[in-house]
Specification:
15% strand; five-stranded parallel beta sheet; homotrimer; 161 residues
Chain lengths: 161, 161, 161
């Protein structure tokens, strides 16, 4: 049993503010030498989508195209959990972030990758929503709930966001 | 101090997708021989309601009848946390689940019971919302926050969903 | 490594019901001699706002005034995560709480302070939303994510609400 501290976060939410919280905690924990994993499942998977339109190799069915169109393409397009105001809320938050020299979500994700935070896409969700590897960011891993539990059971900072 | 790994989940949410996530994690952990508890509180209690109408032995007051009518009766009636579309979202998700041979929520709950996942109904919430034992699934336990803490403090995969 | 059990809760949500759950768990854990911390971040910070209007010493900018006006001033003004019904939901819940001799949120917060639960306001969020110390309850602490991790990594009941 290693002495390395572990932090694992399940990012279930597709909200910009909740994803920010997840990545701020993850980056903080990585800075304190924790081994950190963010397991992206359900709507949280959207944080890992590339922001450009990608023609996936396998043709999508009707439902898959609908999900693809309705869900935000990448971290920068996500809405807020509160005060979304039909899309105005995220702009307000981003203005405030810029004004205070805080770090917006896409850069928090880059920082996490630079700090070797393990970003995992839930393969079950990818299957359900019809998302393919080519549509997601480079340098991430693919796994299921068993791999998540393997990481989580050895750590004690385990959060569901 | 036993060596058995423990996973405890507080299911606060009454959303179909969040409850699915809770039960998928719980079933996974049970398959890896964790002792697993799901503590259903607030809206999460709705996942344990029977889907048929039950005439409870104690007559309900006005507020209790209102809660009973407005809250979903059982796992299959719950809405989504995102893209609910006035009730169309759950149907879409269930179609997708069926098409991919994934397991819908009511069966995930049955699987959990077969794997001896401890399903607990929060007695404080039952009292507040006026839910009686006869309205909830068979084979569950009844407890408060003290029992939850007793389970959680010996494990390290402790999630609030 | 001390033998004291620790419970840490990140209160991200600004919903009355979720904050109630957080404080019920915190008070329960404190009663069982856990060292308990609630780290209030993002919308969860609203639970710590004073309910009277405070003239903050540093003049607020436009966005800060907007946030201050739109966000609930204190625990008693927060909405529900479900069945908010344009503000009627909280009243219903509070009626039910009173009728059942349960404890409403503002008193749960007082109880937590009496039991030495450490209430922390996230300084990054205060900066982003323009909230100043004078606008928040007395007797709380101010810290960032590093302090949270310092508490969380020694405990095992770590929840994100």
């Amino acid at each position: 049993m290693s002495q390395v501290k572990k932090t694992t976060i399940i990012l279930f939410s597709g909200d910009y503010d909740k994803a920010m919280a997840a990545y701020i905690i993850a980056n903080g924990a990585a800075a304190y030498d924790h081994e950190v994993t963010i397991f992206h499942t359900f709507w949280g998977l959207n944080a890992l989508r590339k922001d450009e339109q990608v023609e996936p190799p396998r043709k999508k069915g009707f439902m898959e195209r609908m999900f693809a169109r309705m869900m935000p393409r990448g971290a920068d397009k996500m809405g807020l959990s509160k005060m979304n105001f039909a899309g105005m809320g995220p702009k307000m938050i981003k203005d405030v972030i810029r004004k205070h020299n805080a770090v917006p979500l896409p850069q928090l994700i880059e920082m996490a990758q630079e700090q070797d935070v393990k970003l995992v896409a839930c393969t079950m969700t990818m299957d359900l929503l019809g998302l393919q590897k080519e549509e997601l960011l480079e340098g991430i891993e693919y796994a299921g709930v068993a791999a998540y539990l393997g990481d989580a059971q050895d750590g004690n900072v385990n959060l569901f966001i």
